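Repro case for the chain-ordering regression, as requested:
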Amino acid sequence: MSTTDRQLRVGMVGYAFMGAAHSQAWRTVNRVYDLPARARMALICGRDAGRVADAADRLGWEAHTTDWRGLVARDDIDVVDICTPGDSHAEIALAALAAGKHVLCEKPLANTVAEARAMAAAAATAQAAGVRSMCGFNYRRVPAVTLMRQLVADGRLGVIRHVRATYLQDWIVDPQFPLVWRLQRERAGSGALGDIGAHIIDLTQFVTGQQISGVSALTETFVRERPLPAGSSGLAATVDGAVPMDGHGSVDGHGSVDGHGPADGRRPATGLVTVDDAAVFVARLDGGAVATYEASRFATGRKNALRVEINGSLGSVVFDLERLNELEFYDATRPAAEQGFSRILVTEAEHPYMSAWWPPGHIIGYEHSFTHQMRDFIEAVATGADPTPSFADALQVQLVLDAVTRSADRGSSWTEVEPALATVAA
Amino acid sequence: MSTTDRQLRVGMVGYAFMGAAHSQAWRTVNRVYDLPARARMALICGRDAGRVADAADRLGWEAHTTDWRGLVARDDIDVVDICTPGDSHAEIALAALAAGKHVLCEKPLANTVAEARAMAAAAATAQAAGVRSMCGFNYRRVPAVTLMRQLVADGRLGVIRHVRATYLQDWIVDPQFPLVWRLQRERAGSGALGDIGAHIIDLTQFVTGQQISGVSALTETFVRERPLPAGSSGLAATVDGAVPMDGHGSVDGHGSVDGHGPADGRRPATGLVTVDDAAVFVARLDGGAVATYEASRFATGRKNALRVEINGSLGSVVFDLERLNELEFYDATRPAAEQGFSRILVTEAEHPYMSAWWPPGHIIGYEHSFTHQMRDFIEAVATGADPTPSFADALQVQLVLDAVTRSADRGSSWTEVEPALATVAA
Amino acid sequence: MSTTDRQLRVGMVGYAFMGAAHSQAWRTVNRVYDLPARARMALICGRDAGRVADAADRLGWEAHTTDWRGLVARDDIDVVDICTPGDSHAEIALAALAAGKHVLCEKPLANTVAEARAMAAAAATAQAAGVRSMCGFNYRRVPAVTLMRQLVADGRLGVIRHVRATYLQDWIVDPQFPLVWRLQRERAGSGALGDIGAHIIDLTQFVTGQQISGVSALTETFVRERPLPAGSSGLAATVDGAVPMDGHGSVDGHGSVDGHGPADGRRPATGLVTVDDAAVFVARLDGGAVATYEASRFATGRKNALRVEINGSLGSVVFDLERLNELEFYDATRPAAEQGFSRILVTEAEHPYMSAWWPPGHIIGYEHSFTHQMRDFIEAVATGADPTPSFADALQVQLVLDAVTRSADRGSSWTEVEPALATVAA
Amino acid sequence: MSTTDRQLRVGMVGYAFMGAAHSQAWRTVNRVYDLPARARMALICGRDAGRVADAADRLGWEAHTTDWRGLVARDDIDVVDICTPGDSHAEIALAALAAGKHVLCEKPLANTVAEARAMAAAAATAQAAGVRSMCGFNYRRVPAVTLMRQLVADGRLGVIRHVRATYLQDWIVDPQFPLVWRLQRERAGSGALGDIGAHIIDLTQFVTGQQISGVSALTETFVRERPLPAGSSGLAATVDGAVPMDGHGSVDGHGSVDGHGPADGRRPATGLVTVDDAAVFVARLDGGAVATYEASRFATGRKNALRVEINGSLGSVVFDLERLNELEFYDATRPAAEQGFSRILVTEAEHPYMSAWWPPGHIIGYEHSFTHQMRDFIEAVATGADPTPSFADALQVQLVLDAVTRSADRGSSWTEVEPALATVAA
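-- result from build under test --
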C-alpha cells in the first residue's frame, strides 16, 4: 500500500449490474495496486430509497442518496461514476462536468449522437480546467487485449488486412423472455448493437489503431413482441436499474424484472421490441483493413462470446472473452515449419496489469477489467493526465453505431462514418 | 467387394491439384465401398502430351490424350470428370452432356452466370435422357458436414437464426507471390470469392436448407501488381493446370508456376491482379436467417480455415475444415447446467460415410471427401438417380457469387440474388 | 446484504501469497453472498513488524501484530486463519483450537503425519465443544470442480474406472532460480508433492468419493543445488512468508526472496535442494479405480496446469485449472452419433456458487475459489455445522503424501495408505 | 512418377484391419511419392479361402492363397508383409527371413520376449545378407511425430525432464462386448498393454532418443468374464483375423466376431478375459527423464486418444493422435510475454512427408502414416539401407512390455528393463 493520504471520493449513480461491477473494482483497486491516490466509496445514488440503502450496505458505500443532482453538487465528491442506462448518461455527465467533477461514464457514451457530441464538447471544455473524463470500455483493460494492442503498435502484425469481430450472446432466444429495458429503444438506444456491438467497435479500433470509415449493415429483430415484465407498472419501476445485485438474478443480469409473468394463468400483456436483436455489418477501416462485425443476442450457446481476430501481413491475433486469460498470436516471421497460433497464457508478470495479481497460470476474471480501469483512471486523475478512452473516443464509437443504424435503415447501403471533429470543433 | 461386373469408364480432363485429388478418389472408392458399379480409370486428358503421359503413369490412368473433344466423343467412356480451370468448364460439360456422358464438374460450375445457366439447362435436357450430372462441391461429403445437415433436417437446431461462415487462407500474403492463373479474372472468373467463397455459400445453403436471397458485399485486392511467373510465356503454358502432381509443389498447389522469378537479379516483369484477394458480405437467407460470409487469401496463419457456425432457436453447430473429423453441437434442450458445445469426433460407424473406414477415433483427411463424392456419384449413376448438387444447384451458387460481385461493384448496395428458375425455365 | 449484525472476527496469521488471497476473499465474501454472519478483518499477524503493518494497510485489516500467540488468546477473535508455511501450522492450529477459536488452516494440513494426526485429534475434541475447523483445499470450491462432484454423486459417470491427475508448473526450471523456502524440506515438508500434489489428491478423492488405498511412486530432484536467495541471512528472515503482496513479486509468488543473487559478480553461495522437484505415482482407489498422478515444477510451459480426467462406465469429466470456468463432460448415455465431450461454460446461475456473480459467460478467476471457501466456512460456523474438508479429511491426504514418500524411498514398492481412523480414534 | 521399372513384389499375410490399412498404403505410395522402386501387390494370404479371395478382389491384390508357407517360398515375392495377430508373427517372420525375403512385420513384434529375441537375431543374421526388416510402428511416420523427433534431435527441447503418454480407447467399456481374440492372452499376448501401450512406448522412445530403463506398473482387468462371440466355434474361425474389411464392422474393427450374441434370448456362453483392460506405469528413461504411461480400453469417450507430452529444459511438445495434423510446441527461449503453446498445423511442404500431399491446411488421416511407412520401407530396400524401427528396436519395446508385466505381477515393484543386446549379441 502506498503511504499516500490523497483520496478520491467517488459518487456512483446506479447500482445494478454495472454498479456491482464498479463497486467490486473500487473496493479492490487500492488493495492490489500502489497508486498515488486512494478511492473512497463515498456515496451511491439510486432512485428507490430502500434499494439504494440495501445496495450501499451490500456493496460497501459509506452513504446513499436518491438525488443524483445533489450528489453531483456536493463539495466532498471528486469523481462521478455513471452506471445508469444510456438514456440518462448525458444529463448526469454534463451536470457533473459542469460541477467540475471527474467523470467515469459507462458505455455506450449516450443513446444518440447529439448527446454524445454534447458530452464530448463538455469534456473538452472541462479538460481545459483540469477535469478528467473517461468512458468505460472496460475490455481495453483485459490484459490480453492490451497485449494485442502492444503487438500491433510494435509492428508485429505488419499491415493490418482483416478484422473480424463478433460479440454473441443468447439470453433472449426464448420468445417468452420479457420485455426488459434493454429491449426498449427509448431506454437503451439500440439493442445488441449499442450494448455489445459498441464493445467490439471500440476494441478493434483500439487494438488496430485504425478507425472504421464506412459500413454496410443489416439489423434484425427476430422476436418482435414479448411479454411485459411482471410486477412492472410500466418501465418506470426499473428506472434506476433495479436488477438484483447478483448479476445472475432474474433475467440473467441483463435487465430489470421481478419475474417472468403472471402466475395465475392469464396470458401476460405484451409489448413491442423496439431494438435490434442482432446487427451485422461489413466495414472498411481507415488504414486499409476490411472487416466484418456481428453483435447478436440470438446465438444459442454463446454466452459472452466476444471474439476478435486480426490478420496482418506479418502475423495475426485472436482473442475470446470467454477465455480472457489467453491470447493467440501467429508470428509469420518464425521459421515456416514452426509457425502456428501460440496460446499465450496472459498471466505472467511481464503482461499488462498482471504483476500485481497472482502467480503465473492463476487466472483472473471478468471483473478484473474494471479494477484495471479504475487503476488507470485513478492514476490519470491523480497525476493530471487524461485517461482513455476519452469522451471524444466514445463519440467516435457512437458515430459508427449511428452509421450502422443509418445503413440498416437505408437497405444496407454503404454509409460513411461522420467525422467526430466537425461538431467538437464547432 | 461387390461381385458386380458393371463398370463406369471414366475420362478425366485436367491433372493438376483437382486431378490428383479425383484420381486418388477414383482409385480408392471401390476398395472401400460396396457399390453397384466399378469405376475404371480409363483415360486422362491434358494439353501437354508429355505431362499428361507422366500424370497417367503416376496417377494410375490406363490411357492418356491431349484431345478432350476426342475423349468426350469416345464410345468407351461413360463419365466425363472435369478438373480444369473454370474458363473451360462450360465448353467441355456441354459437349459431354450432348454426347450423352454423365458429367462430374468441379466447382465453381462456371466463370459466368451465362455459362452456368447454359450448363444447367443442358443438364436438365440431358437428365430427361438418363444422363446424370453433378457439381463437385466435395465438402458436402465431409462426414461432419453431412451430420450437420442431418441435425438441421431433423429439427435439432430449431429455427435457424444465424449463419457465419469464413473460408480463410494465406497463400498470397507475400506481395512477391507470382501472378498465377488463379489471380487472373479471365481464367479464374474471380479470386477468393469463386475459389473458396463458393464453397461456403454452397455448404451453408446445403446445411441450412435455405438459400441466400440478398447480399451486401465488399471486395478488396490488397496487392494489385505481382511478378509474372517465371518460365511462363504468358499463361498459355499453364492452361491445362500444369501444377506438379504434388499439391505442395511450387506455389502451394494453388496455381501453376515453375518458380518465383528470374534468378539473375533483374526485376521480374509484373502484371495486374484482376481478381479479389478477399470478399466479405452480409446476407439474408430465405428462411429468415441473417448471415456473414468472408473469403480471403490474406488471413495470415489460416491455411484452409473453412469455418461455419449456425445458430438456431434450439441449438447450434460449428465446423472447422482444419479439424474436419470434429463437429461441435450445442443442444439447448439439455438441462441448463449441462449445456455446452459437444466436440463430436465424427469417426463412429453411426456417422455418415464412416462405417467403411477405420475404427472410431482413427481420423480421415481432406481427400476422403472426394472418395465419398465418387461413392455417391457412382451409386446415383448406377441406380439411375440424380446426384446432388446438381448443375442447377451450382447455378444457384453462381447467382450468389454474381450478386456479391454486383453489390461490391455498386458500392455495397443491397443486391437480390437472381432466381435460378427464370432462365432454366426459358 | 443480509440484515444480520452477527460478526465473525477473523485473525489471520501470515500475509504472503495465501494471505493476500484470503484477504481478497474475506473482503469480498459478504459483498457477494447473503450470509448469516459478516466477516470482520480484525487482526493480521506476521513476524516482521514493518511488513505486517504495511500488509494490514494494503490488505485492509483493522489491526496488526507480530504475536500469533497473543492473537490466538484474544477474546475478540472468533476465527483463526492460518496462512503460514506448513511447519508452523500444527503449533498455531493446536493453540487456536485449544483457545476455542474456529480454525481455517491452509493446505497441506501439516508437514508430517504426526502433526496432522495431532491436529485432527484436536479438531475432533474441539468439535464436541462446537469449535469448527477446516482445511483450505480451495479448489473444491471452483464451481466446475463442485459440478464434477455433483455429476459423480448423481451417478452420471457410473462406476469410476480411471483417474488421471496432473498438476504441472515450471517456475524452477531455471537452475539459477534460488533456494526459496518451498525448496527446503524443514520448512515445506516436501516439494511439488505436498505443495501441488496435495491438491490433486484431495480434489480427485473429493470428486470421486473414493480414497487412494495404495501407491507406487517415484520422485526426482532434477536440480540438486541452487543459489541461496540474496539478502537472506538464512531463511529465518522469510519465516512469516514475506513475499511481496503482489503474487508476481520476486520468484513468482512461490517463495520469499528479495532477488536472484549478488549483483557484484561473485558466484552466489549455494545450498542443497532437499525436496522433490517432481513426484509421479500410480495408485488404486478404494472403489476400484486405477489412477495416475503427477506433480511437477519442471513442466516447461505449464504454469498452473492442474488437470484431472475421470472415466466412468457411463461418462467422463475433464477439468483444467487454467480454464477453470469450463468443464468437459462426456455422457455415454447419449445417442451414439451425438456423443462428445461437452465444454460446459460453468457460469450459469444453475452452477454451484455462480448465481451471485456475473451474467452467463462472464468468467471468474482463481481468487473466487477462496471467496467460495469463505462463504461455506462462514455459513457452517454461523449455523453450527462442520465445514469440509475437515482436519480428518486433510489428515487422510497427508497419509497419502506419506505413502508416496515412503514408496519413493523404498524403490517404488507398493505402499498402502495408512488408515486415518487409527489415531483419530485413539 | 519415377521412370523406374524396378518392382518390389509384396506378399501380405492377413487381411483384417491391418491388412486393409496396409493395402491402402501399398496401393497409394507410388502414386504420391517418387521412389526408386514400385510396390506390386502380388499376393495376399489368409486362412479362409473364400474370404481371402474376396479380400484380394476388394483390396486390389493380384492373387490370393491360404498357404503362407507357400507364399514365403515363392521366388516371385520380394517382400513379406505380416499383418496377422501377434501369436503368428515369429513363425512367419523367421521363415520369411530364412527365405531371404525382406520383412515388414506389424507391431508388437511378438507375443513373448523369447520370440522377439529370436526374430531380432534372425533379422541381424539376414541383414548381413542384404535382407531388410522393419517393425510397423506406423505412428513414427505421422508427420507431427516425426517433427517432434526433429525438434528434440535439434536440441530445441533441451534436457528432457518429463514424458507423459496415454493411449486411451473405450471400445470394451460395455461388459456385454464379446470375448474377441484381442482379449485372449494366447492370441494377443496382452491386452491394452501390447496393443496400444506398445505404441506409446515406441513413440516416446523414438521421439526422446532415450530408452525406458525401469518401471513400476499396475494392470487391471475390470471386466473379467464376457460373452463368447456368436458364431464362433472357438476362436479358430478368426485365426486369420477375419474382421470385415471395413474397420467399423462388428466390434469396432478391434476384433473378430460376427455378432454380439444369440438372438434367441438364451444367455450367451461366456469366457474369461485373460488380458489387461488397462495398464499404468511410472518409468525412468536412461537420459534422466521421469515418465508416466497409461494404456486403457476403458476410458469412456476416448476413441483413439494417443497423447504425448514431453517437457524439456528449453521447451515442450504435445501431440494428440485424434488431431494428428497438429503439433503443439512451446519454445521457452522466446520472449517471456510471447511464450505459449503454438498449434502448428503440420501440413506445410516444409513438414516431414507433406510436400507430396495437398496444399497447406488440407489435412491427412490415420491411413497416411502407413503410406509414409511404405515409402520409407521401399526406399530403404531399394537403396540397400536398413529401415527403422528394426526388429532390434521392436525387441526393446517388447522388453519394456515384459518389464511392465513383471512389475505388475510382483505388486508394482520396481523392475529394470532387460538389455536387448545380451541375446542379440549371443
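Ordering looks correct now. The longest strand of chain B covers residues 160-168.
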